[in-house]
Amino acid sequence: MKFASLVLLLPLASAFVAPKAAFRSMTLKAFDQEQYIAESKEMRLKHLEEQAMFALKISCENFDNAVFPNAMIAGDVVITDLLGRMGYLKNGKAKIMVVDTFHLFPETMEFLKVLEKKYEFKAEIFCADGIPVGDKAAFDKRYGADLWKEDIDEYDRVCKVEPFQRGLKTLNTNCMINGRTRWQGFERAWIDLFENAPIGGGLAKCNPLAYWTFEDTFEYIAKYKVPYHPLHEKGYPSIGDAKDTIPVPQDGSVKFVNYEWVGDKTVWCEYAKERVGRFVGLQNKDGSTKTECGIHVDGAERTWDRDLWESDKSKAKKLSSTDEALEIKKSGKPSVVVVYAPWCQFSQAMEDEYEKFAVAMAGEMDVYTLRGDEDREFVMENLNTNSFPTVNVIKADGTAVKYESEVRTVEAFSKFVKETLA
């Protein structure tokens, strides 16, 4: 048995007896670690490119109105370049949408012009409702220059969420392309290439970079010499509003300049670090640290295809103008008025309860609704409205008394009316 084993092994052993010259050539060729790392990165990037292009092809070939809301950050310029390479920007199969918050860095809108020229498209720009594109003075007059300091949630709705929703609706979007990745943090850790969002029966969402790291985006930018936001050269890994975006680290020692890294790139490229310089100093109303602008939170992709309290059977009476609202204040009769915006998720959430309240008050007091997002100056001056929804009890002398609680139930409203008019 031992002999048989030896016989079987002999041919194998002889295979390793190589001529001396061949053996010397093998020993002279060192293991080039850096070369193999570079090759493996190139293999990975090639796969990611093909995967992203597959996702974009599905989006642009199978949907009539694919729209890409573009913030011009690193991942977004990668998607812009991919769409450009595939011809979807030039032929119009993909539209670029930009939300101008009126608080962006000056470099951002200038950089948009660079992208428009290179890829031969014209972006659709949306901003706060009722304000001409680019007119910051008009925004300040209507909404206030310090809105973001006074009410960050209202700022997000006015400057980001509402224009975003309106843009999707205006462009008849049925597939939204965006640059979210799993690498950006736990809020996005489970996203896939495709999702559905609740718009008119289902808006397709395409996340072509879902499985990319932040480093991957810069590898792609360097490989294809893609134009990138100039603030990357000043130490900003991600770019949002100028009011709450800072370099990382703050001394600006890490940069991306002329398609090469300066400093320790891991400061930018570690997991969930891409947006660490965003939303600095901002908190949500519950005191938690702000990590999202409101656009990509649950339900934010919804659009409003109808007004609120629109049924002919509604007991909440609709005020169709500011003149009608003034008449109510001058009538000498106590009443209740809610100032709302149909796109506001909090207004939507209280629709049913306020209707029940109107039913409960029938025969005792009139209950009204007034859409307030179309004339904010009026509702701010006359109906205590800085955010939506705002409920006021109108006393007989015309004084509007604001309901301050976040509890919006029939019982809570009824108690407030009773106490206010006591």
Rg (C-alpha, Å): 29 Å
* Largest pleated sheet: 6 strands, mixed
Helical stretch tally: 14
Average of pLDDT: 86
The termini sit apart by 107 Å
How would you describe the overall organization of this protein?
The relative contact order is 0.09. α12 (345-361) crosses α14. This protein has helices at residues 2-14, 20-28, 33-62, 74-85, 106-119, 136-143, 147-150, 152-170, 214-224, 266-269, 322-330, 345-361, 376-382, 410-421; strands at residues 66-69, 94-99, 124-126, 175-177, 194-197, 203-206, 255-257, 260-262, 317-319, 335-340, 366-371, 390-394, 400-402. The chain folds into two domains: 33-303, Rossmann fold (3-Layer(aba) Sandwich), CATH 3.40.50.620; 317-421, Glutaredoxin (3-Layer(aba) Sandwich). It has 422 residues and is an alpha/beta fold. The strands form three sheets. A six-stranded mixed sheet has the order 3-2-1-4-6-5. The chain is elongated and about 90 Å long. The chain is built from 14 helices and 13 strands. 40% of the residues lie in helices and 13% in strands.
Features:
422 residues, alpha/beta, Rossmann fold, Glutaredoxin, 2 domains, 6-stranded mixed beta sheet, 5-stranded mixed beta sheet, 14 helices, 40% helix, disordered N terminus
Summarize the structure.
With 422 residues, the chain is an alpha/beta fold.
Topology, element by element:
Layout: H1 2-14, H2 20-28, H3 33-62, E1 66-69, H4 74-85, E2 94-99, H5 106-119, E3 124-126, H6 136-143, H7 147-150, H8 152-170, E4 175-177, E5 194-197, E6 203-206, H9 214-224, E7 255-257, E8 260-262, H10 266-269, E9 317-319, H11 322-330, E10 335-340, H12 345-361, E11 366-371, H13 376-382, E12 390-394, E13 400-402, H14 410-421
Parallel strand pairs: 1-2, 1-4, 2-3, 4-6, 9-11, 10-11
Antiparallel strand pairs: 5-6, 7-8, 10-12, 12-13
